[in-house]
Design a protein that fits this description.
Chain lengths: 418, 418
């Protein structure tokens, strides 16, 4: 078969399987998830062996340390995959829930029922644990999944997918419930992106260029997971001790993730009091600080920030700092330069906290807390498939409920339209 | 300015305006809507004059009677536009509602707040009333709108948009709240579809080829309003009088719309009893009936249906009829050939009604009622911008609530992530 036929066949299988998956009982789904957890644990050794091939080949190719870290599966990460499967089994099943039901004057009863989306395509890069996390989150919500991981992780992905698929087969679930695209040919993605007849949604997980390519070439709706240029604004009425702890946490606790702070905005009235100590603390933790003109005057060892800094997701121990006139200027800066991901104000003033919550146009808007909490687990949504930075369908952390759609059910006793 | 710069400027204006619109009070929005209703009524004469130009030019070009009907604005339709504006003013404002709020173990309060989508692009064809209906539905939900109507309706659209824009100006709302693309150059749409930086969603309203073109060329998320190939399945345990009334209504009451029935499925056990009278009634109303082999044997004056008939949205007094073995076969036919829009079962059997509701994968699934009820007004959602046939973001009738997004607000007292 040609590549085109191959991918088409996978998509058709997925669509066909999705119809049965949509009608599975919660009990069967949860049993399958538990058995998958076992299969992962029992085969830890095999997983590590296959993963070693990927890691060795990544080293040979001279790929970056950060990428090799994301690629590597050790005992802890394998245990985490199994744990997340067991957690998923315990989560409430969203499917079949009647969201609301109302009666019309003509006696029609109309209800909105939660149903699966259908077929979900996941396109991701080097992290092989996404193979498991994404597939099972989709399965929990009654969806069929087509997985397409990065070529760096191909041995790991095949091994993990095969373990899941074996459980699917043993449980006599439809064969197309979980499928992995096994070729590393990049055209496979292009073929997949045109199959809107069979695939309901594409979720790309990865860098900006991957997401851009997917968006530009897909006729299937895409839920984007773009970058996070997150801010903390320290108001003149902030508790400055609290502000220091929050800003430090938001930048330093894990700088390589999308909900880490990239820009600190400080009210000019407290800048001279707050910034010198704050910046020293950052510098002590190895953070490179880049500041606007005022910041550079107040503190030492600071590089001037350029226009580009304000729009950059460093994903690293680098921070840009700007002194602003007040909350208006802070909100303006965030809405202009930010990526509408996660932004925080630190203040004791109720009116300003309400204004900030209202006017900052981001997926998650914080008062007096670190932006690092933007995460499905931390929000209490259970596992997440990622953090949507778009406004359609799902915004912010996407849990199992965001992988569903709805249908209207209408119960009548002979109503016709006049 | 070039066309490209023109469209870019419109999109930028819209984005800029959307930030203020998102924070308008319900009172101001509703006052503006009422004033728009007045403006439409007061200027009925001018609207009709401009509309006459479009109608005359459509006649000159020899366009179809159906198109000229959709294009024509008379006193009744103008009154309907004004009425729908007043209705909209009375609708509840969805914006700012906190959908739910919960407390995490660490004390964080997390809430989900309804916010506008931002900028909505509406691409539509010959019906000029969409100019008003779409713009004000978007405005009610705090969105800025970019309208792009069909060239046939250009004089009517400019006249209507100018009336709305004048009210916007007088009320000192942002100038880019409602904008109409005034050129009939088709490249304008192509330019618009690439401006994902400024436009949050595109809603195309029109025929299949328009929707296909938009989907294939847009980097902005699209909410599709595809065709309706709707079914009624008459079960062997149906009340056959009720079934006759429902099927007749679904086909004949208004055949040119997407929620009208195109295919009647009849259980083989009652086919010989039910179909002859039913088909005679259809034929009496001028319906051309096309049947499968069994139907052709049972009743007279029937053309054989082809494979293509089962997938065709006739939008006309034509009906395909098929005799099926039972509910399994009916559901299979609907999920295979239908367009996942609106489908009904007529039965007195509870188990079968539940099975049908569960397994038919359509936006609206009916028991014992006509599919013609799939409509925002009939469902009690207030006005609608259309009926989405996709699964993402909105499925089925889209009211004002479907033109919103959400954001998470997080209230802390110094929480940082460990």
């Amino acid at each position: 078969m040609s590549l085109k036929e191959d991918i088409l066949e996978i998509a058709k299988q997925a669509k066909f399987s999705s119809q049965r998956l949509a009608n599975l009982s919660s009990k069967i789904k949860d049993e399958v998830l538990s058995r998958m957890a076992e299969a992962i644990e029992t085969n830890a050794r095999r997983i590590k062996e296959e993963n070693c091939k990927d890691v060795a080949s990544a080293r040979e190719k001279g790929l970056s340390g950060a990428l090799i870290d994301r690629l590597t599966l050790n005992d802890k990460r394998i245990r985490q995959m199994a744990d997340s499967l067991r957690q998923m089994a315990r989560l409430e099943d969203p499917i079949g829930k009647v969201d609301k039901m109302w009666r019309r004057p003509n006696g029609l009863l109309i209800g909105k029922v939660i149903v699966p989306l259908g077929v979900i395509g996941i396109i991701y890069e080097a992290r092989p644990n996404v193979t498991v996390d994404a597939a099972v989150l989709c399965l929990k919500a009654g969806n069929a999944t087509i997985l397409r991981g990065g070529s760096e992780a191909i041995h790991s992905n095949i091994c993990l997918a095969d373990l899941l698929i074996k459980v699917i087969e043993e449980a006599e679930l439809p064969a197309g419930s979980i499928q992995l695209i096994r070729t590393t040919d990049r055209n496979a993605v292009m073929e997949m992106l045109k199959l809107d007849e069979y695939i309901d949604v594409i979720i790309p997980r990865g860098g900006e260029s991957l997401i851009r390519t997917v968006t530009e070439n897909s006729t299937i709706p895409v839920i984007k997971h773009y970058k996070g240029v997150c801010h903390t604004y320290v108001d003149e009425e902030a508790d400055l001790d609290m502000a220091e702890k929050i800003a430090f946490n938001a930048k330093v606790q894990r700088p390589g993730v999308c909900n880490a702070m990239e820009t600190l905005l400080v009210n000019e009235k407290i800048a001279a009091q707050f910034l010198p100590g704050m910046i020293k603390k950052f510098q002590g933790a190895g953070v490179e600080v880049r500041g606007d003109e005022k910041t550079c005057k107040i503190a030492e060892g600071i590089k001037p920030a350029t226009e580009e800094d304000w729009q950059t997701e460093y994903l690293d121990l680098i921070l840009s700092v700007k002194v602003v006139k007040g909350i208006e200027a802070a909100i303006h800066h965030i809405n202009r330069y930010g990526s509408h991901h996660s932004d925080a104000i630190v203040t004791e003033n109720l009116r300003k906290s309400r204004k900030f919550l209202q006017e900052v146009d981001s997926a998650a808007v914080y008062v007096n807390a670190s932006t690092r909490f933007t995460d499905g687990g931390e929000f209490g949504l259970g596992a997440e498939i990622g953090i949507s930075t778009q406004k359609l369908h799902a915004r912010g952390p996407m849990g199992v409920c965001e992988l569903t759609s709805s249908k209207f059910i209408i119960l009548g006793d002979g109503q016709i339209r006049e």
